[in-house]
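Ticket #4471: structure export looks truncated?
Reporter: QA, pipeline team
Priority: medium

Steps to reproduce: submit the single chain below to the structure queue and open the exported record.
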Amino acid sequence: MSGFFSVDGGFYRFLCRFWDLVKLNFMWLLFSLPVITIGASTVAAYSVAMKMVDDEEGYVARSFVSAFKANFRQGTIMGLIFLVATYAIYLDYEINRVSEEGSIILIVIGIVSAFVYVTAMLYAFPLLARYENGIVETIQNSMEISRRYFGRTLMIVGMLIAEFVLFHFNTVLFCFGMVFGISFAIFTVAAFSKRIFQEIEKEPGAVR
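Actual output as written to the record:
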């Protein structure tokens, strides 16, 4: 049988990609359970997701475990930085929320912190998944890419927000979000990141 429903058709490819995202979502959740390993788990998920972008991932579970082991140390450190930064921004929000009059200074600090947080972290995990660099250099590169590709960065953030709203729209969509929401968000960032990385790698003098 040929056409849309054949093994080479769009529907079959859609089902395969959906199932890969479900498996990737499960692997990310499983390896993030100790919490302290969430960084290494995220790097591993990005490693698989960037291969999925061009249908290069092979076996999801095997590729994930391999990437998890290879990036455990740096991924764990990056994850701890991510958790501390997230909590700091949340704490600023909570202090301002419970304050009787609020604070313009806290609001400004929160907005600036959130902006720096996004630019520093958005590409950090994909960068760790693709290149061998130190933590500080990776964060600096993430901020530089965010500045240089500001339009695409805003698009990524917008899409992530839209996905979050979609998966919280009703109970059915929330259940879908539990099944593959995290991996879908990772795949979204990975798809944009890989294209940006490939553009940078083509530049004269670029280190691959």
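Status: closed, not a bug. The export was complete when the record was re-opened. Leaving a note from the reviewer for reference: The two ends are 43 Å apart (CA to CA).
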